[in-house]
Design a protein that fits this description.
The complex is a heterodimer of chains A (66) and B (248).
Chain A lengths: L6 H7 L20 H32 L1
Chain B lengths: L31 H19 L14 H29 L2 H32 L8 H22 L3 H15 L2 H11 L19 H40 L1
Classes of the chains: A mainly alpha (66), B mainly alpha (248).
């Protein structure tokens, strides 16, 4: 297939407004998905810190009752 | 007749000997392994968030890669591998310490797999447009998580120490059989989950900046895993010693 349009115009034409595909690159750069990034890191931090606290509490309880 | 562990010479279910196990002794002061793990994790996260380039297609959400993939490698391959090996070893030599190691690696592995199963959908919502897809990789990982959870529930449900250790060793070794299948799902089935980018048969498809951050994250997660495993093992040893003391 031969492209008959400049690449910049092709990029503009493939913008998906119906939301039928997962992602279409924007001409201005990557989408702003930083909220998802922060969400992922926050979840991981909460889980790991929470688990360490649970372990510390278990150890303290066992030590206290023995 | 009481069963005796072939390696320790102690009756199965007896109180662990504090002198024989350095992990049982009272632990005071700073946990150096945990401190090293925390420092490594903070360094890896700071590098990932602030000093690693943003992916040109996916944007900042791609940085979940530095949590998601190391957690998957550690949770599935290291923790479940350890669960399988220690379960099989327990069935062979019947050593209580190996049973405790299997229990500890299962629970810590469950936490790491939980991270995989929560960060994956967050990334997927942004990249795929959906939180969850019932495709082979995601579904089989969820299934493994549920199996490991069932393993821990089983341990809590059986009263007899010897029966508990034997039954859970069988279940643990069978559950871990799912890991090679999960690894191959992206090859065997058509799905949304991408194929490996780091452990690819050809050279890694990541630029060097991203690969360095990934390497740091891997080291940090490995340290964190072993620090948590050590902590969990210490508590299990204390708990069993206390239980044996109470029943004596």
């Amino acid at each position: 297939m031969t492209l008959t349009l400049p690449i910049s115009r092709v990029a503009l034409r493939v913008q998906d407004t119906a939301g039928t595909v997962a992602f279409v690159p924007k001409p201005g750069g990557p989408p702003d998905t930083s909220a998802y990034m922060w969400g992922g890191y926050a979840v991981a931090a909460i889980v790991y810190v929470g688990y360490v606290l649970v372990l510390r509490r278990r150890i303290a309880n066992t030590r206290r009752t023995s | 007749m009481a069963m005796v562990s072939s390696t320790t010479g102690r009756p199965v279910g007896s109180a662990p000997d504090a002198a024989a196990s350095p992990l049982l002794g009272e632990h005071h002061g700073v946990d150096l392994l945990m401190s090293a793990a925390v420092i490594a994790c903070v360094a890896a996260v700071v590098r990932a968030l602030f000093f690693t380039p943003v992916d040109a297609m996916l944007g900042a959400v791609q940085k979940i890669f530095y949590l998601h993939v190391p957690a998957a490698v550690v949770g599935l391959y290291i923790a479940c591998g350890l669960l399988a090996v220690s379960s099989i070893m327990y069935l062979w030599i019947k050593d209580d310490r190996i049973d405790r190691l299997a229990e500890s690696s299962a629970e810590v592995g469950l936490v790491f797999m939980g991270i995989v199963l929560t960060t994956g959908p967050i990334w997927g919502r942004s990249s795929w447009g959906t939180w969850w897809a019932w495709e082979a990789r995601l579904t089989s990982t969820l299934f493994l998580w549920l199996l490991v959870l069932a393993y821990l529930v089983l341990r809590g449900a059986v009263e007899s120490q010897e029966s508990r250790a034997r039954l859970s060793a069988v279940m643990g070794s069978l559950a871990a059989l799912l890991v090679p299948f999960i690894h191959l799902t992206v090859k065997l089935f058509r799905g949304m989950h991408p194929e490996p980018v780091v452990l690819a048969p050809e050279k890694p498809k990541l630029p060097i900046e991203m690969l360095t951050t990934f390497g740091m994250a891997m080291v940090a997660f490995l340290l964190l895993f072993f620090a948590l495993l050590r902590m969990r093992y210490r508590w299990t040893t204390m708990r069993d010693a206390r239980a044996a003391l109470l029943s004596a």
